[in-house]
Specification:
binds adenine, 8-stranded parallel beta sheet, EC 3.5.4.2, 16 helices, metal-binding, Ado/ade_deaminase, globular, binds zinc ion, Metal_Hydrolase, Adenine deaminase
Length: about 350
């Protein structure tokens, strides 16, 4: 198993049918009608409607701890050595769950994973675009008292109709508070959404970014600035934003173009797999080679918000793994200065 970093997983998207039933039972709630529903979905909104309805069973700090712990154990088995995890605080506070129960429950699971699996990680609080910029600013104010549990802010939910520019002020404020910035863009929205995320929000990573390939100037810019793209192939098939054949997935073009793309899981309970499942599916489809799997892992580590020493340590693990299995050592693992 290649050591790697998970940079694009929504913790609410790891809530599988078994855990939904267990939490519904524990909290005395009905099992949501969408429990167990999986791919394919008509589009992003069709999926999001199920995803938001199912997370109603998450009520207590213990629930968030258990959700995080289950994910982190599964991620450790996938070779994940560092996890930067998305959480949607507004989807919980809107239901009356205190924000500290969300953040402290997940943080406790991260602390346990450090002890149990030697994994590092942190949380990225995402703003729900469909609730608009004022609600995003209120959400930022709500999480700031707990900022020691956060690495970054992000932007997710319904993309088209909610362009990044709407969220300029909240991202500016987050940056002033010392938080890193990422944004979903180019999943369903066009290259203009990616440009806005970069130029107006100051996004340091683009989540998905598939549609950036439609704009040659943008591709050149992403290459020159080594801007990371966190790509989720099984998600793209499930939401029909790529495919239907994984052999045609844009990750191959991204790597050929020299973009800093890496592979992640998005919402694994719904889309048929975790990070390792995504990578295995790409190799099975002939979309990437085993040597390129090493490149994807090195790109993920380089794209993380780990300090330089942490990146160097994980790149050394990748180099050792490549040598052990007789694969090519990824260039970034040979020359950490290129990170
Ligand atoms: N929230 C959870 N999964 C998402 C996705 N794939 N795109 C946007 N928002 C999301
Ligand atoms: Zn996502």
């Amino acid at each position: 198993m290649w050591p790697t970093a998970e940079l694009h997983v929504h913790i609410e998207g790891t809530l599988d049918a078994d855990l939904i039933r267990a939490l519904a039972d524990r909290n005395g709630l009905p099992v949501p009608a969408g429990a167990g529903r999986g791919a394919p979905f008509r589009d992003l909104q069709d999926f999001l409607d199920v995803y938001y309805a199912n997370l109603d069973v998450l009520r207590t700090r213990q629930d968030f701890h258990d959700l995080g712990a289950a994910y982190l154990a599964r991620a450790a088995a996938a070779g994940v050595r560092h996890a930067e995890i998305f959480v949607d605080p507004q989807s919980h506070t809107a239901r009356g769950v205190p924000v500290e129960d969300v953040l402290l429950g997940l943080s406790a699971a991260l602390a346990d994973a450090r002890a149990a699996h030697g994994m590092s990680g942190g949380l990225i609080a995402c703003f729900l675009r469909h609730l608009g910029p004022d609600a995003a600013m209120a959400a930022l104010e709500a999480v700031l008292p707990h900022r020691e549990h956060l690495i970054a802010v992000g932007l997710d939910s319904t993309e088209v109709g909610f362009p990044p520019a709407l969220f300029r002020d909240v991202f500016e404020r987050a940056a002033a508070e010392g938080l890193r910035r990422v944004a979903h863009a180019g999943e369903e929205g066009g290259p203009d959404y990616v440009w806005e995320a970069l130029d107006i929000l100051g996004a340091e990573r683009i989540d998905h970014g598939n549609r950036a390939l439609e704009d040659v100037e943008l591709v050149a810019h992403l290459r020159a600035t080594r801007t990371p793209l966190t790509v989720c192939p099984l998600s793209n098939l499930a939401l029909r934003t790529a495919g239907p054949d994984l052999a045609d997935h844009p990750i191959a073009v991204m790597l050929d173009e020299g973009l800093r793309a890496s592979v992640h899981s998005d919402d694994p309970a719904y889309f048929g797999g975790y990070l390792d499942d995504n990578v295995r599916a790409l190799v099975a489809a002939g979309t990437v080679t085993e040597d390129q799997v090493g490149v994807l892992a090195a790109n993920a580590v380089a794209s993380s918000f780990l300090p330089d020493a942490g990146k160097a340590a994980l790149l050394a693990e990748i180099r050792a793994h490549a040598e052990q299995i007789g694969a090519a050592v990824p260039a970034l693992a040979l020359d950490p200065a290129a990170v």
